[in-house]
Write a structure and sequence with these properties.
Layout: E1 2-11, E2 13-19, E3 25-45, E4 49-53, H1 65-76, E5 82-88, H2 99-114, H3 121-131, H4 135-140, E6 143-147, E7 152-155, E8 163-168, H5 175-185, H6 193-202, H7 205-210, E9 213-214, H8 217-223, H9 226-236, E10 241-244, E11 251-255, H10 258-271, E12 275-280, H11 284-288
Length: 289
């Protein structure tokens, strides 16, 4: 039996460089692992894949990314045995936080351990990329520049530890819809990825906060003004910066301290119906220590 944590991510930047011949978009984005995580308890079975989830309405079948990750390993390595997966979800679903991708990444790592496959990180990422563009990042974690369709990763310096407030509105945003509307509208402002990489390397949280930029944000706000409302609430309560993560709809704010993050979260819980979380950025150096 193994227990694996599946950490969420936020986008510090998200830029779209154009449409690729394969139908995907060419992106350049800085992604950051955060402490909010799902937990997967996995154990071998004689044959089948069994998946149980603490969210009753979430499908626990072959369409679920966690299931598909287990089946991919079984098929790729001719495993006769199966796996029982007990998934405890804390990351909101369809939120721009890569919850499904994180779960699939955790299953790939868990299957590798359970069956003693001795696959290295590069091979796990190669397998993960077959299932979803965010999965390689979720396997590696930390602070990364993601290019290509999101699967080409460059390790950056650790983002200086920063407290993060998350507010997930009670709406769902289709990633396909967001990208399609971006293709039609474009964006007035694009991220300066070189500048934010340098700010991260210097450990300058204030500079990082000033460089947050997501080209999908203006597209999504036009349809869902609640995103702009949550951003403004966070800023009014002292957040260093606030932005939508991924294709949304989750809004995050960077706080100067845990106390400030909890204060911002309290206001959001009182004045909105959002799902609100307080967490912090995850540093790879701490994991290695």
């Amino acid at each position: 039996m193994v227990t694996v944590e599946a950490n969420a991510k936020i986008n510090l930047t998200l830029d779209i460089l154009g449409k690729r011949p394969d139908g995907f978009h060419e992106v350049a984005m800085v992604m950051q692992t955060i402490g909010l995580h799902d937990t997967l308890v996995m154990e071998k079975t004689e044959r089948d894949i069994e998946l149980s989830i603490n969210v009753p309405w979430l499908k626990a079948d072959e369409k679920n990314l966690a299931w598909r990750a287990a089946e991919l390993i079984r098929q790729e390595y001719g495993l006769e045995g199966g796996v029982r997966i007990e998934l405890t979800k804390r990351i909101p679903v369809a939120a721009g936080l890569a919850g499904g991708s994180a779960d699939a990444a955790a299953v790939l790592k868990g299957m590798n351990d359970l069956y003693g496959l001795q696959l290295d990180e590069e091979k796990l990422c190669e397998l993960g990329a077959r299932l979803g563009s965010d999965i390689p990042f979720c396997i590696m974690g930390g602070t990364m520049l993601a290019t290509g369709r999101g699967e080409v990763l460059t390790r950056l310096s650790d983002m200086p530890e920063t407290w993060v407030v998350l507010a997930k509105p009670r709406i769902s945003v289709s990633t396909a819809w967001a990208y399609q509307n971006y293709d039609e509208q474009g964006a007035d402002r694009h991220p300066d990825n070189e500048a934010i990489k340098q700010a991260i390397a210097r450990g300058n949280r204030k500079a990082v906060a000033g460089l947050l930029c997501n080209v999908l944000e203006s597209v999504t706000i036009k349809k869902y003004d609640v995103i702009a409302e949550y951003k403004q609430m966070m800023l009014d309560k002292g957040a260093m910066a606030s932005m939508m993560s991924g294709s949304g709809p989750t809004v995050f704010g960077l706080a100067k301290s845990r106390e400030q993050a909890e204060s911002i979260a309290d206001v959001l819980r009182q004045e909105t119906n959002a799902d609100v979380f307080v967490t912090r950025t995850f540093q790879m150096s701490r994991r290695k220590a």
